[in-house]
Amino acid sequence: MLKLNVPDMTCGHCAGVITKAIRSVDAGAKVDIDLKIQTVTIETKADGSAFAKALDAAGYPAMVSSAQ
């Protein structure tokens, strides 16, 4: 499991773009978005840096906050 902080994520449109970017890295990833605290939790086996790069390319810079 991977948790990302996405400070520029503020609305449903943002969540949709972010979900699409995550699924471009791992189509089977389970994505849970919390707009209130601006975090994205991803259940995946893919590398966290790949998700951070995809979100950056989509215009939503993210920081990996934890991985389990």
Please describe what this structure looks like.
- By secondary structure, this protein is of the alpha+beta class.
- It has one domain (about 1-65): Alpha-Beta Plaits (2-Layer Sandwich), CATH 3.30.70.100.
- It has two helices and four strands; from the N terminus they run E-H-E-E-H-E.
- The protein has helices spanning about 10-25, 50-55, and strands spanning about 1-5, 30-35, 40-45, 65.
- Strands 2-3-1-4 form a four-stranded antiparallel sheet, with helices on one face.
- Helix 1 crosses helix 2.
Considering the chains and any ligands shown, give keywords for the structure.
68 residues; alpha+beta; Alpha-Beta Plaits; 2 helices
| Domain module count | 1
In the CATH hierarchy, what is the class?
Alpha Beta
Q: By helix and strand content, what is the structural category?
A: alpha+beta
Order of secondary-structure elements: EHEEHE
Number of strands: 4
Distance between the termini: 5 Å
Rounded Rg: 10 Å
CATH topology: Alpha-Beta Plaits
Main beta-sheet strand count, sense and barrel state:
4 strands, antiparallel
Number of helices: 2
Q: Please, what is the average pLDDT? A: 93
Roughly what fraction of the amino acids lie in strands? 25-35%
The percent range for helix content is 25-40%
* Cross-sheet strand order for the largest sheet: 2-3-1-4
CATH architecture name: 2-Layer Sandwich
User: What coarse outline follows from CA principal-axis ratios?
Assistant: globular
Low-confidence stretches: none
